[in-house]
Amino acid sequence: MAHDHGVEIKRASEQGMDPDRLDAFARVIEQDTAKGLYDGAVFLVARGGVVVMHGAIGHTDLAGKRVAEKDDVFFVMSITKQLTTATVLMRIDRGELSLTTRVAEIIPEFGIKGKQNVTVKHLLTHTSGISGEIPSSLPLDQVGNLQAYVAAACEQRLMTLPGKQVSYNAFTAHAVLAEMVRRLDGGNRPFRRIVAEDVLEPLGMKDTSMGLRPDLAGRRVPVVVRDKTPGLFDPALLEATNVMVEEETEMPAAGVFSTVADIYRFSEMLRRNGELDGVRLLSPAIVQLAVTNQTGMHPNDLFDYAREMYNWPEWPAYLGLSFFLRGVGTFPTPLGLTTSSGTFAGLGAGSTLFWVDPERDLTFVCFTAGLLEEGASILRFQRLSDLVVSALVD
Fold it and tell me: Could you give the residue ranges of the DSSP H alpha helices within 255-302?
């Protein structure tokens, strides 16, 4: 059934979901956008590989009075990390890399200033001890030049001992991982082409690109920070991506454009243990390892600021190989408090989320326009995620 708020709900009952509760979820987004909390959202809910709700509410360009559409193209921020990680996991499957491979074996110039023993696993689990900040020596117009970025990162010193602390690495770790993949590939293909040809095309993700492909530009959702509360990310830097990111820009940690439907295809591949529509991208074994807790009970130091700012408790990071995990316990989580402990996710700054709950065979993808401060966004997605789970009746 179609609703007046631009949402299609179908086959929900036969998939064990209550259509009225899904409709209530959509109405909450309507209320949020009416209050001006954020501008709009595009979202999708699926159960057992069947899409039961796909909708678009509000605006994805408020200044331009553009109403949200299901095929809007969003700058997905750090969901890019999971796509980059897929290229790494593929190389592990092929025996070209191991989690124990030291970065310096592939990028010799990286192995200085204490970084000699940083491994692939350290980078994937945010435990490398290297700075996640954009190198201060790198001009802003070179942030999207992968080789220039990695050269600058190689000159940085180790900050903390590898494997000892978890501190979410916003930019550098996945740039280094991407350069490792590029060199293993022979150095002939730019990393954005490796992602396109090895991951996106096999999965039929036609509306996804690293860097802004010209044919996607007309549907691009501008990055606008709606909540200017001082917090994790600099609003000016986030909004600068509107002019910084061009077709050839390579930011393996945060530079992909995509649609909700395409990221659903990626999440569906993971839900199906590495295969989609007869194409096997990853082995079941590597997918299972990637969505298993790799960080023990260590907290994620990134959220120290939020623990003080919002008076939140300390909780374990619960990170797999680049994937966020629900884990157990009651604490702020964008995955929702009612998802099962094995739920895994990708999360983009103040705006984007996908998660898969394998126990319930449930998938949720939600992209929003009008960024919130990260802590506020976590609580927003926690509420929306729990609303989705509340629609399960079987």
Answer: 260-271, 284-290
What backbone phi and psi angles, to 5 degrees, belong to 366?
A: -145, 120
Residue pLDDT, tens place only, 215-264: 999 999 999 999 988 888 888 888 989 999 999 999 999 999 999 999 99
Helix (H) or strand (E) holding 193: helix 191-195
Q: What is the DSSP string of 203-260?
A: TT-TT-EES--GGGGGGBPP--BS---S-SS-HHHHHHHHHH--TT---TTT-EEE-H
Q: Cβ-count burial of 311 within 10 angstroms (0-12 exposed, 13-18 middle, 19+ buried)? A: exposed
> What pLDDT, in 10s, does the model give residues 305-363?
999 999 999 999 999 999 999 999 999 999 999 999 999 999 999 999 999 999 999 99
At 236 the pLDDT is 85
Using a 10 angstrom Cβ sphere, with 0-12 exposed, 13-18 middle and 19 or more buried, the burial of residue 344 is: buried
Inform me whether the pLDDT recorded for 1 exceeds 60: no
Q: Which two tokens stand for residue 163?
A: 């494997």
Return all residues near 68 (Cβ < 8 A) that are at least 6 apart.
6, 40, 41, 42, 56, 57, 58, 59, 60, 369
Burial-class residue 330 by CB neighbours within 10 Å (0-12, 13-18, 19+).
exposed
**Predicted local distance difference test score (pLDDT) of residue 3:** 41
Name the token pair of 45.
């809910």
- Provide the residue type at 262 as one letter: D
Q: What is the pLDDT at residue 233?
A: 82
Predicted local confidence at residue 235, as pLDDT: 86
Q: Please return the burial class of 361, using the count of CB atoms within 10 Å of its CB with bins 0-12, 13-18 and 19+.
A: middle
Dist. CA 285–CA 282, nearest whole Å: 8
Rounded distance, CA 268 to CA 260, Å?
A: 12
Give the whole-angstrom CA distance, residue 40 versus residue 216. 19
Buried b (16+ CB within 10 A) or exposed e, 279-293: eebbbeebbeebbeb
Cβ atoms < 10 Å from Cβ of 393: 11
Place of tokens 């990170």: 319
Tell me: the pLDDT tens digits for 197-206? Answer: 999 999 999 9
